[in-house]
Amino acid sequence: HLKFLANSMKLQVLEGNKVVEIKNRQINKGIASKDWLASHSSDFILAIGDDWTDEDMFVAMPDDAWTVRVGPETSSARFSVNDTDHVKALLSHLIG
């Protein structure tokens, strides 16, 4: 019922990992990421997400970005880790 109502209002309902997100169809994490990257220079880009709502962000990242999916699901991210403990280990390794 919620999806039907949202559709008539040009909104999108996203069911994620313990979350229901309602948003404008023309705005997503990929568009926001591209806008942010266009206005900020960087030497290293790391994008980590655990939900299918993060897929737009993974796709929007430049080819040299490190994109990491947390969990076993299929993803557009270049890399994946099993859980948040692995994310913590990765971040610890990166900071040296």
List keywords for this structure.
single chain; 96 residues; alpha/beta; three-stranded parallel β-sheet; two-stranded antiparallel sheet; globular
Describe the structure.
It is a single chain. 38% of the residues lie in helices and 25% in strands. The protein has helices spanning 2-8, 29-39, 55-60, 84-95; strands at 11-16, 19-24, 46-49, 66-70, 79-81. The chain contains four helices and five strands, in the order αββαβαββα. The mean pLDDT is 92. The protein has 96 residues and is of the alpha/beta class.
Helix content: 25-40%
Count of individual beta strands? 5
Describe the sheet with the most strands: 3 strands, parallel
How would you classify the helix and strand content by structural class? alpha/beta
Radius of gyration: 15 Å
Determine the strand fraction and express it as a percent band: 25-35%
* Distance between the first and last residues' Cα: 50 Å
Q: What general form does the structure show?
A: globular
Order of helices and strands: HEEHEHEEH
* Count of alpha and pi helical runs: 4
Give, in spatial order, the strands making up the sheet with the most strands: 3-4-5
**Unreliable stretches, pLDDT < 50, 5 or more residues?**
none
Look at the structure and give the mean pLDDT: 92
Structure at a glance:
With 96 residues, this protein is α/β, with parallel strands linked by helices. 38% of the residues lie in helices and 25% in strands. It contains 4 helices and 5 strands.
